[in-house]
Amino acid sequence: MNPDDANPTGMTVPQSLAGGRLTIDLGALAANWRYLAELAAGAGTAAVVKGDGYGMGLEPTVGALAAAGCDTFFVALPEEGLRLRAVLRDATVYVLDGLMEGAAATYAGADLRPVLSSPPEVKEWAAFRRANPAAQAALHVDTGMNRMGLGLAEARSLLADASLAESLGLALLISHLACADTPDHPLNGRQLATFREVRAMLPGIPASLANSAGILLGPDYHFDLVRPGIALYGGIAVDGITNPMRPVATLEARILQVRNAAPSETVGYGATEALDRPSRLAILAAGYADGYPRHAGSSDDRPGARVFLHDRPAPLVGRISMDLTTIDVTEVAGARRGDWVELFGPNVPVDEVAEHAGTIGYELLTSLGPRYHRRYVGGPDAT
Question: What pLDDT does residue 11 have?
Fold first, then answer.
């Protein structure tokens, strides 16, 4: 098989047979990490690689980030941590979803650090560490998001015991910002003040509050370690500003057919969009089964997303199907069967497509299906 058809995710989808291809620029990923590390100078910079590296592939992603200098990673699940540990023997790995009941020995055996978020987890981990004093963990305190983490009253009660940090092997204190993507939201300041209060209860323990958007809020939010996620992968972290990050993922679909259609004819399921001129339509080999969102399509009532080919934008027409998407190439000279069309990437930001679909870039990236031919460029796992 041609090396260009290799897929580091473990599946082999030859480009010659694929309806779509996903190009992942590991060099851009590394550059984004370095940029964020510069913004957070004075603090360490970790990387959040949960969700299979935000859909980019966990193993190639962590390899490129490690080569750039990253040595601390956050995953959601212990299964992700085990995959990461198979690639990087010496990295520090935190498991954000915490300690799965009865699994402490597995965490410790792979040197995974659970992020403890509830009194039962704290109790179970403390009991385990009595016989395994080398095992380490993080402690998550909720400062206003009401998701994961000890409540403030729970934290105060637990942290009244000065020996807690030592008994748990705490290596990090964390919380998570709920509204950092809206810089002037008042909850940001309240969470910062609460986190400072909790941090004072654990002197000497490194602290981490800032996600991607939190980094851009400024040094007050950086503490000892920042944990960027979506910004690493080129997504918008803060609303209302120009995105400074380089795009990492370029998603393309192949044109299967080019056809002519007359004015007043409709396109796609439900006949939701009627043409207002003689049109040339191109049918693309990608749809919602591939993670390209159905609600990015168009109708007579609203425009849909756009794509890019032959140095020109082209609009979607009608509903997106399971395996097919229709675009209007009337204004694009030379569009033909076999051409690759950019669905998102350097010319069509992923967050622009997400906005048309009523969602966010995070969901698009982590929903990409397995039918794409994947290729990696610009890094140690490039193919």
Answer: 53
Which pLDDT score, from 0 to 100, does residue 239 have?
Answer: 83
Q: Is residue 50 among the annotated active site residues?
A: yes
| CB-based burial label for 200 (10 Å; 0-12, 13-18, 19+) | exposed
Q: Which of these three, 233, 258, 279, is where a domain ends?
A: 233
The list of the chain residues with pLDDT below 70 reads: 1-11, 380-383
Q: Are residues 98 and 213 in the same domain?
A: yes
The confidence score (pLDDT) of residue 179 equals: 95
Does residue 6 sit within a domain? no
Q: Which of 50, 233, 288, 292 is catalytic?
A: 50
In 202-236, which residue ranges form alpha helices assigned H by DSSP? 212-216
Which residues are CB-neighbours of 106 under 8 A, at least 6 positions away?
A: 78, 112
- DSSP code of residue 102: T
Q: Is 233 an annotated catalytic residue?
A: no
> Residue 152 sits in which domain range?
26-233
Residue 242 is assigned to a structural domain of this protein = no
What pLDDT, on the 0 to 100 scale, is given for residue 7? 44
Do residues 198 and 175 make contact, with C-beta atoms less than 8 angstroms apart? yes
- What pLDDT is stored for residue 160 in this prediction? 84
Going by C-alpha positions, the residue among 32, 46, 40, 72 that lies closest to residue 220 is 40
The catalytic residue among 35, 94, 233, 269 is 269
Check whether residue 254 and residue 209 sit in a common domain: no
Q: Are 150 and 117 in contact (CB under 8 A)?
A: yes
Nearest CA to 375 out of 219, 237, 248 is that of 248
Return the structure tokens found at 359: 């969602």
Output 359-363 pairs: Cβ under 8 A, ≥24 positions apart.
359/293, 359/295, 360/235, 361/230, 361/235, 361/236, 362/54, 362/230, 362/235, 363/293
